[in-house]
Amino acid sequence: MQVLRGNIVHAPALGELEALEHGFIVLDDDGTIVSVCPTLPEEYAALPVVDYGDSLVMQSFADMHLHAPQYPMLGMGMDLPLLEWLNTYTFVTEARFSDNDYARRIYKKLAADLIRNGTTRVVMFSSLHTDATLILMEELERAGVTGYVGKVNMDRNCEGLLETTEESKRETLRWLDACDRFKYVKPILTPRFTPACTDELMEWLGKLAEERGLYVQSHLSENQSEIAWVRELHPDCRQYWETYDKYGLWKDHTVMAHCVHSDARECAAMRDANVVVAHCAGSNINLCSGVSPIRKMLREGIWVTLGSDIAGGAALPMYRVATMSIRASKIKRIESSWREEFLTVPEGYYLATSSGHRYFGAKDGFAVGDKLHAIVVSDADFTEAARPLSVSERFERAMYMMSKDSIVSVWSEGRKVL
Ligand SMILES: [Zn+2]
């Protein structure tokens, strides 16, 4: 067993922040949290202490939507709307991942950058390539990133990057068979989005999800042209979500990225099925998709998490994604003549941490019984404040001002990985 000491800041509920100045986290020998306390109880007094001094010990981040093979196009080509953006920039970039050496180089860097920026859990898209997907999972596991990765299924309507329906099925099974060797990174079924999958493939994936008890991730209601296209492809479905529901893909823990244009009926379907929204504010603004009604979703009891959505999103660090989500909620406030409340910093932090960690079975905040997922943040080189700051104020400033250089240590699944 061991003890971590520092200024502990965590989000035990939406909008709640608990700050323990010079507090303690007691860990079991496998990195499970035994106690979170303001003073160290006598029974733990003899344990070895990792002293983080005046640094902040915060929850690490969970990135609930990102595309690993789009990492090479980060920061570029955000001048087109979704469907044109896919056909012009995205598929040609993802096609490069038929080259395993290239995949190895990019994914090694991505995995390292995730950890350096404090992201320890992901729900991630790969490309359609089985071998590159296995390389991605290897590199994530080696770096200490945990979570779910999906080999993408796409057998229609994607110029320059396609598999046949038969290939898609065969390669999905080959990929699943090879996933047994991973301890911390698990497979998730990943139909790219309704327009990219034939009915036959969607039906097959739905059955596979049920047979093997697999989770599902995809995209929903990101852009108006996309929604109109889905309506043409599935005239029997009233709304986009029903095209997933029809094949058994709309179920508990299904992650749906974006949900920018989801109305009351689509939102009710999310809540009823326990579908998870991965809100990607930066990406939605970059591609002029719109601003998702997050406050409304939270009010209605929908499970909302955050995603960087690289490379529609241009920022991998989840502290940037959290503050971007706060800005996006302020756009909603402006648009609603100040009726809608914006997200507070503790709320943005909760969505980027606890709400995502819950997907993996964790409880909110630093909770007893959970494996430790934490970052240690030094704000020593931030500008000297005009007065002494409380731990909560230092936390708020860190959320807006930290960079990877501020993150001095990272714990993932109870292990120190940086
Ligand atoms: Zn996406």
Helix-strand blueprint:
Layout: E1 2-13, E2 16-27, E3 33-37, E4 49-59, E5 61-67, H1 82-94, H2 100-116, E6 119-125, H3 130-143, E7 146-150, E8 152-153, H4 165-178, E9 185-187, E10 190-191, H5 199-212, E11 217-220, H6 224-233, H7 240-245, E12 255-258, H8 264-273, E13 276-279, H9 281-286, H10 294-299, E14 303-306, H11 318-335, H12 345-352, H13 354-357, E15 374-377, H14 391-401, E16 407-412, E17 415-416
Parallel strand pairs: 1-4, 5-6, 6-7, 7-9, 8-10, 11-12, 12-13, 13-14
Antiparallel strand pairs: 1-2, 2-3, 4-15, 15-16, 16-17
Helix pairs in contact: 2-3, 3-4, 11-12
Bound molecules: zinc ion.
Residues 65, 67, 219, 257, 309 line the site of zinc ion.
Quick take:
The protein has 418 residues and is α/β, with parallel strands linked by helices.
Task: Characterize the structure shown.
The radius of gyration is 21 Å and the shape is globular. It folds into two domains: 2-60 and 364-416, Urease, subunit C, domain 1, CATH 2.30.40.10; 61-352, Alpha-Beta Barrel (TIM Barrel). The protein is α/β, with parallel strands linked by helices. It has 14 helices and 17 strands. The chain has helices at 82-94, 100-116, 130-143, 165-178, 199-212, 224-233, 240-245, 264-273, 281-286, 294-299, 318-335, 345-352, 354-357, 391-401; strands at 2-13, 16-27, 33-37, 49-59, 61-67, 119-125, 146-150, 152-153, 185-187, 190-191, 217-220, 255-258, 276-279, 303-306, 374-377, 407-412, 415-416. Helix 2 runs parallel beside helix 3 (130-143). The strands form four sheets. The chain has a seven-stranded mixed beta sheet with strand order 3-2-1-4-15-16-17. The chain has a four-stranded parallel beta sheet with strand order 5-6-7-9. The mean pLDDT is 98. The two termini are 19 Å apart. The structure holds zinc ion. Residues 65, 67, 219, 257, 309 line the site of zinc ion.
